[in-house]
Design brief:
The chain is of the alpha+beta class and 455 residues long. The chain starts with a helix and ends with a strand. Helix content is 29%, strand content 29%. It contains nine helices and 20 strands. Strands 7-8-9-10-11-1-2-3-4-5-6-12 form a twelve-stranded mixed beta sheet, covered by helices on one side. Among the domains are: 178 residues, outer membrane lipoprotein receptor (LolB), chain A, CATH 2.50.20.10; 129 residues, no CATH class.
Amino acid sequence: MGNKLEDLKTSLDQHVFDKNTFDKQREKRIIEQLNKEQLNKNTNFFTLGKFYKPVLSLIALLAFASFLYFYISNGELANQPADPGPEETDKPPIEVPQETTSQQAIYNKMLNTAPFFKTVEGSYTIQNKEADDITTVNFAVDQELQSYYEHIQNNDSDIEIVLKDHEKMMVDHKKQTYTKTAGVDFEPELQAYSTYLYPKELANTYLQAFETWEIKQNEDSKDQDAVMIEGKKDTEKFRMEIMEDTGIVLGLTVWKNNEIIQTVTTKGMTIEPNLVADQFTIDIPAGYADTNAVSDDETVENNEEASTQENEEEPSNSPGDEPSSPVSLAQELTGYKMNTFDPLYNSTKEEVIQHLGKPMKNDPGTPQSDDLPSLTYEDLLIKFKGETVYVIQIKKAEEISEEELKERLQEYQYEFEPPALYNTYSYNYDEKPFEIQFHFGSEGFQHVQLYSGTT
């Protein structure tokens, strides 16, 4: 065996390593070559690392962003209703309901229409069938310039009123007179058109109880921005057309016992028109009298006449004297002289305000019922029927019993009426425009009324 191995070594040396003698120098070169190859391998690895690290970071960032987007999308979808899928052909399309005006919104705008327009013009026609009266009011209002114009026409009145630069002029075409007043505040809500242009009182009268009215379709309206409402108040039914953007009343119809008793219609109603200065002026016809231009002779004559009238109506109030007439007793019980109210007979609201000043309350009432339009002062309540004064109610200043009243005025003829609320004792007022009425209720004497008896 040993000889064979020796032979193999000798053979390899002769053939394989004959030209490649593996000495120390050869071994060194081989080791250097291996170290160089290892160094090149390490260098390539680090070079690749510098290239792949940003790439790997970008890939990781994209992967995280994709995950985040998928998570958020799934979360939003989870909060949405499930997709029902395509509609079946035999089912009608689903109608999306449109946004509608609420009762509260209508009510709120009617309570305060002023902020929703600057200028407005138009006309109202008010027909009260119970009073057999038709009133037309043409008007123009500029809230920024604090000016207004109105022209009131009916069977009893033909009056133009204008306010500009705090000067007011009223022209009465029936009486052929005119009156100028300086230093007048801009209060458009006190004018004839105010009931419907500033319909606060209408809102409080008809719409406070939301369960008594509802919003209806308004397909027949000429104004597409109008809202139609229908409802009931006591024994009456009503339909009202409201301008949705402003709360202004465009129309009103009231029924009682299935019969129309009142209608209000508008014509030429325009919001934000370009009003011109000429619309706030009135040309005074020739021959009209200035009510402020009273001569000295007329003043003396009027004062003497008033003094004579007071002396005739007012008895002496010396101790021990008793009132001798309904006039004297009414003056004692109220503190007012009865001839104070003579100028108010057949007066309009505007004329009463001019005579007595600004009221504490201007109530348009509901003329189609027993709730009449009225003006309230500290001691007075003045009611109107049609366009003129109907009743003046005077607050009591002194007490009196029914028995005492009948005893003190037993020599005078009177009419006794026992209505539901008051026992009324009525006396003719010495051929003057008013009757004097003494009203008693369950708690005793209530007030004195001067009743015109007109309709």
